[in-house]
Structure formats: structure tokens, C-alpha cells
Amino acid sequence: MRRELAIHMSSLCLAAATILVCAIAMALEPAELVESLRQYYARDAFVSHVVPSVVAPGGLLTIRGDGFGAASGSVLVGGEACTVEEWSDGFVRARAPSDGAAGLVTVQTGERTLESPFEVIVATPSGASFPAITSVTPANGDLQVDFGEVLTVQGHGFGSVQGRAFIAEALRHRWGDDDPATVTAPEATVLSWTDTQVSVSVPDTCWRHGRLTLVFGQYAIRSQEDIECP
User: Fold this and answer.
1) Predicted pLDDT of residue 18
2) How far apart are CA 224 and CA 142, in angstroms?
3) CA torsion 63→154→142→49, rounded to 10°?
4) Per-residue b/e over 91-130, b at no fewer than 16 CB within 10 Å?
5) Is residue 185 classed as helix, strand or coil in its secondary structure?
6) Model confidence over 66-111: pLDDT tens digits?
7) Element spanning 135, H or E
């Protein structure tokens, strides 16, 4: 319900005197409102997310969004061509380039060129496999969570150095900044961190729904499950 209200309010905010006025009316930070407006206007065609964020050469990438069209187009990672295996208006599956690559995922169809909100790395793993999240389990066993609820994240390759955790539909993540984990998304409080398990607390800034993302070292890995925030 809140999601639909936010989109409706975002459209009404065009007539408001300032973004700040609308932000106060919607109980949002101005930056959140700007992002809501951006999503409102881009909703006819966009890439919402790509999984995994780190993949081996020739590995499978799943791209979700909307407005891709019925006719198959092309997919690139950092300008390197992928092999498209499946295509629909809101779902694309493609094989990563056979050589290493890094950058935004570009979906080209007709006259449209759409980019992912964060980068994907194509590289050969140095160990047995890339880091991955295998499950997210809320304390109440339901993916409709409350503020402050503890989420247990299972997987492998998280490392021993604590990273950061976020819950968002689309995580904006840029490599090469002074801080390699530059993001704009609701950040969860990390309670514990090991190589195979991370515990986090749902932030009170979380709203709508999104996927849990762990950011550490050169990696930004996302859960398969959607987390429904209050």
C-alpha cells in the first residue's frame, strides 16, 4: 500500500513548490524523494537488478526489470557482449562474456539502451567458488519483517572482515570511488559476521520491499529472496 501511495505522491509532487515540501509530506528524506521521482519516470523501461553480481566467464546472469520488449535484443557487461539465452519483457537470461569484464550491465532493445543500477564483475574465482548468499531467515520465519527484526544470512565466502548490509530493490554501487562500497540504500545494522553466516537488524529506514545485499571487499552479493518491509 505504501509503495502505491509513494508513487502517487511522487507524481503529485511535480506541482509542489519544492522537493523539500513533498519530502516532508511523505515522511521521506529529500534524496529518497528524488530517487522515487526518478523511478516514477523510468518505470516504463528499466533494469531493476542483476544476479549474481560476480560471475565466472560464461556463467549465467539473470536480469530483471520491465520494458525490455518481446523481441530479443543484446546484453553487455562493461561493453563486452553476452550470449542471450532467454528474453521476455521483464526477464532476460544471458551467458557472461568468455573473457573477464567489469561494469554496468547494458540491455539494448530497439531504440532503448537500459543500464543496471550497479556493476557486475566477470572473473575467474581465486578459490573454490565466488561468495554467495544461500538463504535469508527472519526470526519469525516470515519474509514480511518488522523494524529491528533480526535476519540470519547463510552462505559462503563472506570473509572474516565485517562488511555492510543493505535492503533495497536496486542498490546503486560504484567501484573505483574513494570508498569502494559507496551505496545509496537503507543500511542494516550488522550484529555478527563470519565467513558463512551474518546476522543483521532490519533498519527503520527500510520500506516497500527489496533484496538483502552484503557489500565487502570487491563484492556486492544479493539474496534471492525479497524482504517485505513494513
Assistant:
1) 39
2) 15
3) -10
4) ebbbbbbeeebbbbbbbebeeeebebbbbbbbbeeeeeeb
5) coil
6) 889 989 999 999 899 999 999 999 999 999 998 878 888 999 988 8
7) strand 132-138
